[in-house]
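QA checklist item 7 of 12: single-chain prediction sanity check.
[x] sequence parsed
[x] length recorded as 129
[x] structure emitted
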Amino acid sequence: MSTERLREIVGIHADNLDDTADAMEADGIGLHPVDGHTHHIRRLANDMRAAAAGGALPFAYHDRMGVHASAGQAPLPGQIMSVMAAAGLDPRGRFTLAELDAAMRKSDVTMSDRFQVKNTLASLGRISS
């Protein structure tokens, strides 16, 4: 099957998933910014489109801990958001390492959680010098 035909077929199903997410949002269902149902449905639809664009029949979906390609900023995994909230850090922000350390030190965030937050933000390009 040609990539063009595959994209067409998969696109129908991905569009249906987007329509479902739209309807759920309209009813207030699954709206959590990271772990919400609508968020996952849209990522699933985009994952299917990406597979088809590469000439592959979508076979399996792997969330990759919430880090995915999008037009906007990649969302943070729920655990990272919780640690940042406990430290009083805006999960949408960009930070220096010194700012992160100071905020997390004040709130008694564990060393393990500090490393996870820093590694996650660094991988998303959200740590500035």
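[x] summary fact logged: The chain has two domains: 3-64, 78-123.
[ ] second reviewer sign-off
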